[in-house]
Amino acid sequence: MGSGGVGKSALTVRFINASYLEWYDPTIEDSYRKQFTVDGQACLLEILDTAGIEQYLTLNDLFIRESQGFVLVFSLTQRDTFREILKLRDTIYSIKSTFDIPIVIVGNKSDLGDEREVETSEGEKLAERWGVRYFETSARTDTNVWLVFEEIVRKIRSSDHYK
Ligand code: GDP
Ligand code: MG
């Protein structure tokens, strides 16, 4: 989850297809499945690439309730998208009836160094406060993308609700 344009689709496509799309329809919400191995154990990860968060609130309630883990993505080049993930976390907590929620924070577009608006230390500080991991990624240059999905699988596995 994350604001429009932060690179949710680009990260998903990079992970699923090992390719980079310059443009992906921002209104398409799609799910993808990938089988891979984390810490020597196979898993089948189903990823919902969300779109238009605001418009379909009821649908969002449903997918939040049914999802086991959340990758909260912002763009390192847009400060308002960093603020947005605070709201998203509140929304997730208000819908889930537990505080044991697997979350990973991602600052994407690390390749755009000149346009950076959010410092690494700010992402790290937030992650520390929330007790989660923080990664800076680039879907374009394929930096740290796999780490994000491996980490969310680890968090899901170690959560109380995983069976
Ligand atoms: P979404 O709305 O969050 O799904 O964002 P998209 O994946 O559609 O990406 C929005 C725009 O940002 C597109 O033009 C992408 O090419 C671009 N983009 C996504 N990830 C990166 C990245 O890591 N680096 C750069 N430079 N651009 C990116
Ligand atoms: Mg998208």
From TrEMBL:
PROSITE patterns: RAB, RAS
Single GO term (MF): GTP binding
Superkingdom as given in the UniProt entry: Eukaryota
Any one GO biological process: signal transduction
Compartments, as annotated in UniProt: Cell membrane
InterPro entries listed in its UniProt record: P-loop_NTPase, Small_GTP-bd, Small_GTPase, Small_GTPase_Ras-type
Recorded topology in the membrane: Lipid-anchor
One Gene Ontology cellular component annotation held by this UniProt entry: plasma membrane
Principal location class: membrane
Keywords carried by this UniProt record: GTP-binding, Nucleotide-binding
Pfam family for this entry, one: Ras
Gene3D superfamilies: P-loop containing nucleotide triphosphate hydrolases
PANTHER family: RAS, DI-RAS, AND RHEB FAMILY MEMBERS OF SMALL GTPASE SUPERFAMILY
Protein name from the UniProt record: Uncharacterized protein
Source species of the chain: Tremella mesenterica (Jelly fungus)
